[in-house]
Design goal:
Layout (H helix, E strand, L loop, with lengths): L1 E6 L2 E6 L6 H9 L17 E4 L2 E4 L12 E2 L12 H8 L9 H7 L27 H13 L4
Antiparallel strand pairs: 1-2, 3-4, 3-5
The protein binds FE2/S2 (inorganic) cluster (FES).
The site of FE2/S2 (inorganic) cluster (FES) has 12 residues, from loops.
């Protein structure tokens, strides 16, 4: 299936089977490796991206089912121009092993992102959250990103 996907504001032409998960399209075909593979069953959140501003598990979305513009961790702020949530992550020293961090960040509310996120959105709680020392800093970071305004 040949399709054009808009990812982080840039159009990419891909020709892959319909049922290839978006995760592998991003990582293997496009080379955006910031989106991680963890569980493959929609439980961990490491593969989370946004489609038209809605957080989705890219391991569960087939190429044929991608319905809008995809945003990955690479599409957020850049060094020197971080998204609010990325700066909050740094300020709260969130990262521990870091593997789930891109998924956590992309799933967090991001008021500076052009498209508003659904109000019901909350951060995921993957299984390793029970013991990960990043859990509390993550909880501290997310409310800040909800209240700060874009400049
Ligand atoms: S790899 Fe998709 S939710 Fe874990």
């Amino acid at each position: 299936m040949a399709v054009s996907l808009t990812i982080n504001g840039k159009v990419h032409d891909v020709d892959l089977p319909d049922n290839v998960p978006l995760l592998w399209v991003l990582r293997d075909a496009i080379g955006l490796t910031g989106t991680k593979f963890g569980c493959g069953v929609a439980a961990c959140g490491a593969c989370t991206v946004q489609i038209d501003g809605q957080a989705v598990r890219s391991c569960q979305v087939a190429l044929a089912d991608v319905w809008g513009e995809v945003t990955t961790i690479e599409g957020l702020g850049q060094p020197g121009n971080l998204a609010v949530i990325q700066q909050a992550w740094i300020d709260h020293q969130v990262a521990q092993c870091g593997y789930c961090q891109s998924g956590q960040i992309i799933e967090s509310p991001q008021p500076c992102w052009p498209k508003p996120l659904p109000p019901r959105m909350t951060i995921s709680t993957p299984p390793c959250r029970a013991t990960c020392a990043a859990a509390e800093p993550i909880r501290a970071s997310v409310p800040r990103s909800r209240t700060r305004r874009c400049v």
